[in-house]
Structures are given as C-alpha cells and as structure tokens.
Records
---
Amino acid sequence: MSQTLAERRKKLPRWQSANRRPIDRAFIRAFVGSWNQNDNHEDVVMTARRLHALGAAIVTGAGFALSADHLDAQRWPEKPVHIVVPFAPGGGTDIQARLLGAVFHEHVGRTFIVENRAGASGLIGADLAAASPPDGYTILFSTASLTVNKTLFGSRMKTDPVRDLAPISWISSTPLVLVVHPSVPAKSVIELVALAKRRPGFLNAGINNPGSTNHLAAEMLKQTALVEATLVPYKGGGPGIVALMSGEIDFQFATGPVATSALKAGKVRALAVTTARKASAFPELPTMNTFFPGFEADNWYAMWFPAGTPAEIVASMNALILKALKAEKVRGFMMKEGLDPVGSTPAELGAQVKRETAKYAAVIKKGNIRLQ
C-alpha cells in the first residue's frame, strides 16, 4: 500500500524536514504543473523546495549587492577624488577648486585632484565628468555657464545638466557690477537708462565672449529697460575692463574681482550689482532688481557628480562642502575676491539650474543671440 505524503515526510532526514515552511499547492502548481493523486509527491515537494531555495538565493544576492553599495558609500572616499574644472588654470573656478580641494583633504584625509579640461565654453569638461562612473570619485566644478550653454549650443551640447548630472551643492556667487567710465554723465542706474533712451544706440557696452553671463546681463538691461546700446565683444574680462578704463566703451557688467581692481584705481564708477541681494563685497551698491524686478545675473559656481551616484555619497560630499565653506581660510579668500560663500542642498541646486536655464533661454531667444 502506497504511503501518504505525510508518512513520507516523517521519513525524511531531520535537516530536510525540521522547521520547514509548508509548501503552498498553488505555488507548486504554478511551477511544476497540475496537482493530482498520481504525481510523485516527493519529487514535487523537492522541486518546490529547490525553487524556494533559488528564490531565497536571488533575494539574498540582491540584498548583498545593496549592502555592498551601502558599505561603499559609508567608506567613501577610499581613494583620490578628481575635480574636473572645465576652464583653464588660474581662473576663478580653478582657484576655488584648488582651495576647496585642500580643505576637503584636511577634513577626510584623501587627495582631491583638480583636472583642467578647458574648451568649448566648458562643454568638454562637462562631458568628461558626466560620462565618468557614478561612484563618487569624479566631481564637476563649473559655473552658471552650464545653464546658458543648454540654449546656446542646443543639440551640440551632449550633457544635459538636469538629466546627466547629480547636483551636490551651490558653492559661491559673485556679482556682476554695472560700471561706467567716469566721463559718462550718469551716477545711478536710472540716470544711465535715461541717457540711453535720449540717445538710442549711442552708448557702447563691453561684453566678454558672446553668450557669457556679462553679455546676457547687458542684453537683459536692453530688454527690461527698453533701451538700445551697441554691444562690443572682447576676449575676456581683462581686455574689457581695460577698454572701459581707457574710455573706448561707456559701460559694462564686470565680474566682482575685475570691477574691484578698476574701482580701487579710480578708473571706473560703480552703479549697481546684479545679485538678488546686496553683495557683501559691495555693500554700498543697490541691486539691479531694485529698479527692474527679476533682473538677476550673477556668476555662480557649483559642484555636481555624474547622474546615478549613490545618494549617501552625494549627502556625504554635500556635508563636506558645507563644512569647508565655514573654514576661515575659505571665507577669507572669498571675501577678498568678491565672492559670497553660499552652500545649498542638492535639491536647491537642482532648482537653481532649472530656474536659470529657463531665464537665460528667454533672454537668448528674445535677443536672437547666436554663436558665430
């Protein structure tokens, strides 16, 4: 007489039968076919148990992978971290990167290596960083130019700052300063606008490379104040401020450090800053948005990881940045250079990128600005 399934179970070795979870017939039916009295029940049960074991192994493997990622994030950084600066050595981005890298090293004991990958208005370095493994060992340190390039280059820009980069933190901000030659009969923004309206196209405004933030600031003035001015391009802030001091042009929106040196020499007169709030480096100057609400065009700096970097590593780097920005040597340097240390959450930087991209896109399209 054939034995029942229960009797067969009793004869199984203890390691097979003790504390076993009952096998659901629906589970068995789904994987090994219909249940009937003629089935070899022992084979069915053993098959089901193997399937259970396989499922448990898969779940355990997935859990192990997640645990490994978590442990990697906890141990980060275990090796040198590369900071990609998409501009030439010696500029504002490069200098800040090297200073912050040294402070990061003091805090975590790992080297932060600055790599300058200049070219194509910052696109080369951005593409390199975005294509790097999302493991926390490559950081992009760039500027507001990322939000401008999105519209200027269109499909030629491979890296989408929203899609391909994970925001870490806003680092610093420097105002653009509206400065005029001393011979210009305007001692305020209102007087400069009135002068431009009386003589349309007579005033010459110096700009850096087409598409630069100071170019877009000049274009914003034209669009918001409804004035005409002739835009004269120069190869950078240095040549532009020299032209202004010599009287070759009438006004420009100069970066904080460039404006500071010219003001100290008494060669230009400052009228306003382009930041949302008064700039600590120029506390006596009003903001442009005092006269034209929404007029904000500061040059800001920020850090990103490649998209897909574990959230724990992003959070660790964010905390490291916020700590570094409080360091006396960092604050002292930024104050001297006309920079305001900012710091932010990743979400705040992400929102800033979207907001700035939309703002500059509107200015570029309305001004019909095109790269030659």
---
Amino acid sequence: MNIKRFTLPGIFLLIACLNATAQRAKHPFASDAPIREPKIFAEGVISTEDIDDYFSFTPDGRTIYFTKHSASFATGTIVVSHFRNGRWTEPEIAPFSGTYRDKEPFISPDGRRLFFSSNRPVDGSTPKRDMDIWFVDKTATGWSEPRHLDAPVNTDSYDWHASVTADGTLYFISDRKAERRFNNIYRARLVDGKYTSVEMLPDAINSDTQDMHVWVSADEKIMIFVSAGRADGFGEDDLYISYNRNGEWSQAKNLGPKINTRFYEYSARISPDGKYLFYCHGFADPKLPDGKFNHRELMKILRSARNGHSNIYQIDLSAAGIEP
C-alpha cells in the first residue's frame, strides 16, 4: 500500500464519512447526553398540543406509528412519522386507518406485521360497539388490507392493546365477561400459525383492579403494563414491571415516583435499541412556569405539548430502574 496516496484532505474526508455512517447507524432517538429525567419526545412534531399516545417504533427506530385522539376519546386515528434528513416528518394518517376508531399500533419484532385495535365492522357495515384486534402485513408497496383475529382472541367484549413476542406469542387486554375482573392481561401462544387458546395471566400480574396496556419484550423476558387503583400506586394509572424468571412472571413491581405521578402513565415500552423507556403521560398535568405569568405565556403553553394532554416521554432505562 502506498501511504503517500492518503493526503490530509483525504483523511479528513474519510473521517467525515465514518462519522456520517456512525450517525446513520444510531437510532434517531439516541441521545449523546444522559436522559436522567422524563423528557417529552419529539416535541412539536410527535408530541403536540393534541392527545398523542399509543405508539410503536419499527425495529430500526426510524418510523413511529402512534394514535391521535379527539379530546373526548370518541375517535382515534393511527398516524405515522418517519425520521428523514435529521428530523421527524409531519405525521400522516396510516393507509389502513382514518375511517373507524383505530388505536394502539404494535409492530412485531421483525417489522413484518402491525397489530392494532379497532371498532371497524367484522361483517356488514356497522362499526362494533367494542374493540377487536386486527393486523396488517408488510407488502412490497406498504401494508396489506386489515385482517381480523378470530376467536378465541377476539370476543364480543373489548379485546385490545396487543403485544407480540419474537415467536408470535400474543399478549393483550380483555374484559371478557367470563372472568371476575374488569380488564385483565391475557396470553395466546401461536401454534401452527394460529391462536387456538387464551389464558389469563396469574395474580403475580393481574389484580382485582384494572390491568391494561401490556408490553412484552421480543424475548419475553420483560413485561411492562398499567394498573389502576393498586394500594402501592402513586396516581390514576401507574406503570408496573415484571421479569420472566425461568418461565414464570415475577410479582409485578411499581416503577416508582420518578415515572409514576398522581396523573396518568401508560402504554410503555423499551426502545428497539434497548436503552430507553418510552411511555405516555398526561391528562391535566400542564407544565406551567413558576411564579406569575401573563396571558401570552399561558396561551403558548396551552397550545403546546406542555398543556397537560397526553404525550410520549423518554428516559434512560437505568434512570427508570429497569434491568436490561
């Protein structure tokens, strides 16, 4: 090799190229500085003055699907944003959403399937009174037409908020009347490409209150979910965590006051790179400045992601007290 060929400008160009490659390899939500306190994610684009919640990243972290709700939660629409040219794009309505009440997108660990909840009709043209779990598959041009999961997953009750592991095991929420509780976490194993039976998780997870918004890691080692009204809770809805120990879920543990407040925390998940906790927080927790403020300052807050509506937050996994 002729070392003389490497001029100083050439070396600088090589370093710049290597740095650019490293930046592209990083997930767009990665932070060089530690995030030790909860921080609003993508403020002004993803997290706005609207109710922005129930989200899922693609495996490369460069696309996020999330839900926009009306103030009354009577409607819900799934939207999508992409990270391009160093920023998140303005969200657009997902191609499979926009007609019915759709929410809670979940992208499978391989990125090839997206589950969501919807009240769209299964037969006929009248929307359902409850919610069912649907899915779309990745195609060469986008997503397939939505398909309905059959019984025993979907019933005539609310069946919603799916989470799927790498082997296809489905975790979800249901208020099916066969059980004594209102909302519980269920599991269905994928056998020969079908879900043929469901089981309610044991009391280490489910309680006599509402247990909802389940997320399970791709390797089925970590579960994060919401529970409302437990004795050790800090607010309305709190986030709890459980670890899979030798095939059994450990007793659920409250994530503590750094994450949980007297308001609502829900729909959490660990980022695709395994470094951050993302979750939703809000409902009447406006970030008002200390001391007296004027009308212009008030309106600026009310027309921003700090107005107390629900938004997406991010924090380092270690700061959240979660074992990787």
---
Amino acid sequence: MLVAPLSDRLLSVHGPDARAWLQGFVTHDVLGLEPGGTRYALILDEKGRVLADPTLHRPAAKPETIYLLLPADRVEAVREHLGRRIVTEEVELTVLPYEGTTLQGASSASLLGALVCFPHDRTGLGGFDAFDLLGHTPSGRDDSAAIEQARIHAGIPRLGVDIEATTLAAEAGLHDALHFGKGCYLGQEVVARLAHRGQTTRELRRVALTAPLPAGEAPIARGDRLVVQEPDGPREVGTITSFAAPYGLALIRRRWFEPGQQLEVGNSTVTVLPDRVRGHVALAPENDPGFRGNKPHRALVS
C-alpha cells in the first residue's frame, strides 16, 4: 500500500439545484450519480479546452451535495468559473478546509476515520482519497514519489503536467470522462465536432523505451523533444509530458502517434504503445461517440 498527503482540495457544490445546474458544466452525467457514487469528468471552456478534470463524489449522507476533487492551484479558478454561471439557481460553492490523504493499492480507507472518503485510483492499483479537518497519514508516511512513478507507468495523465490550458479533451484521450448521451454542457460542441466530423492534430500517448538508457545518459524528462529522422534532417514531432523509465506519456503529432512508431529522444528511442491513456478504466457504452442514448434524463422528466 502506498500512502501520501494530498495538496488537492474539495469544492462543495450544494443546494436543491446542485446536480441539475452542474450537469451543464461537466462532461459526464451528474444527474445519474447515485448517493455514495463517484465519477470522473472534465470541466471545459467554450473552446473545448480542459480547465480541470475533477473526480465527482456525491456523499451518501448529503445527497444535495456534489464534491469536486481539484488541485489546490486550480480550485479557486474553477470556483470563479462556475460561480459566474449561477443565475437564479439555488447553489452554493464552497472550498472546504479539509486536508487530504491518498491510499493507493488499498482495499479500504476506513482506518483513517475521515469525514469524506471515496474511491480514487491514481496509480492503476486501486485506492481511496480521504479528507478531514486535520489530515494525517498512517505513521507519517509520504510515498508521493512512488505514487507518481506508478501513475506514469499506468498511463494516467495529470492536470498541469500532461494536460495544460491549451489541451483539448480529445487530445488528452480522457474517453472515460466523456458521456455522449447526457445532453448539452459547456464545450460540448467542440467535443462532438471532433468526435464525429473532425480529427485532432496531436494526441497524448503512452510511450516506452526500446532499450535501457545508455550509461551516463541524463534521465528523460518532461519537455524533452521527440524527433524523427527525415531526408531533409531531423523533425520534431512531439514532447514528453511525464517520464519514469521505462514508461512515459507524450503529446505527439497525428502522423507519428500510431502504435509501434519509434521516436528519438536524446540518444535513446521510445516506441508508441498500443495501450490507451487511462487504460486501467474500462470504457462504458456512453463513452463512445456512437452512443445513442441522448434523451432527457429521467431526473428531469419525473
């Protein structure tokens, strides 16, 4: 089991209109989120760019509340982004003063006795995040470095590292965060257009070294350029966004991101893997652009 303190914060969306209102600003279905349930989603701007990728949790004891798990450096920006869009709805947005702990590879987080606890797989090993007023980790452990390495090996993108303010949802490969039958939300037009009639010019892909790094070679790091050799010289075709040998994530231009493509990085070579980003999560029918369940949600018509 890996344990570490979290800098992430919880944004509480509370009120009788909370779910119906939030439905219009995230990419996954909020109305269908049952008490105690958790769901991964994106918050987009009008151009379909990723502002945040919150894990949504509806606490069983507070069914009129949705918690959004967000990085500490994004939570105020998201609160302001959403707050500007409250008109007459009965909704309150509050950043909770809770401290968080993550347990990865754990089957339960009950040992923490936390006020808020929900499943959150940050490593492909399964796990939980827990929050309370004080925050604590068993025995004061901090396995943050091991959790980061496991995240990269599992191909799980991280906001602010692999996903930036200019990244489109389709480029990030976060298919399990998209619900193609939920109806309208901010940024949906761009998502739908790319899914049905367009294509991205670049995408986030998993890569792996074809051989160990040469002795004395500097480790591959975020920002390193991916290159192919062409008749008129080397051509830059992508950028490493995360790396923990032998695996990494890279944003690669379309012509060169197919599985099996070999790319140079420094004095080494990486291969584009066939495994999709966030491949540890099984895709549901509604994550497919061909899903035909686009009907008024039962919570709106009952």
